[in-house]
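pasting for ref
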Amino acid sequence: MNKQQYGVLINGAGWVATQHVQAFMNNPNARIVAISSLHLSDAQRLADQYQLKDVACYDTLDKALKHEGVDIVSVCTPQHIHCENVLAAASAGKHIAIEKPVANSLEELYAMRDAVRQAGVKTVVSFVLRWNPLFASIKRLIADGALGDIYMVETDYQSYNGAWWGAWEQGRKIDTGYSAMAVAGCHAIDALRWFAASGETEAADPVEVFAYAGGQRKGKTHQYNPITNTWQDYAPMEYDGLEVALVRFANGALGKVSVNFECIHPYSFPVEIFGDRGSIKNNRLWSHTLPEQKDWVEIPGLCPDSSDVSHHPFQGQMDHFIECLQANVESHCNLGDAVKTHEVVFAVQQCYKTNRPVQLPLNP
């Protein structure tokens, strides 16, 4: 579908939906035509917030999918209902932007992948850090050979997730949030894959995973608020707050990734990349391309140092998706690629049960 302008349906009216709305509003080749939410008042509130006068509001996705002119569905609902939303959108022949994590089980993950393939629609998954300015600069340096051959990558998602986050009531539960690695650590897994591959639009394929879970917070009600630097009592987290995994990639690189929902400090996303000709530590570079180098060189670009969705580069993601639709090509961050990131999430859980390395792909 190569069109002058693509009609967008925003499905879900929560925190992250505001960023999808802004990104599509700012793209001249997209137009928001409908918003759907479980509560009609929430859909209308989102439309009013952005003064969207000619937008239809619905209280079910099924009704909204019948709205004339919908080409793209932006799935901004809680993660435990992503699968049913994606299956419905694919069945209706719509292209889909999917919030992460995309699924809470392998069965859901593969059902979505198969439905999208069968429908022949295009997708993009919101691993938005691929469009972070610093990450984009790092990826170009890797592709240009500034680090030589990458042999080791470390990424960590560190944020004391809790009641300060609007979706925490669902996110803290196993049946709706699944795990810390699923809720937010998947960002770190995707970054690990992204930096372990040499191509500028390539992510490495994981082939083996081993992991440990730990921490002190699971089941406890007293929790920290990193926004206010205070403590409060709230319903407990049902899963382990610390997960650490080792990943071996098909290209020979090794990776270490962790998610830490127990750290008593502000949000942080540390990155370390080691090649045989140079290294990167967060926004600092040491490279064979700088033979007179006496100290680390700072890489310019906005660091991923906030958990606020308004800080995240959704504009780059959605502009990229529109460009893919116009060119009739798949995104490098499509659902098929995101399956590889999510398989690490589920392989980690298998490790806890077997205490043995897990081979990937889980479903060849």
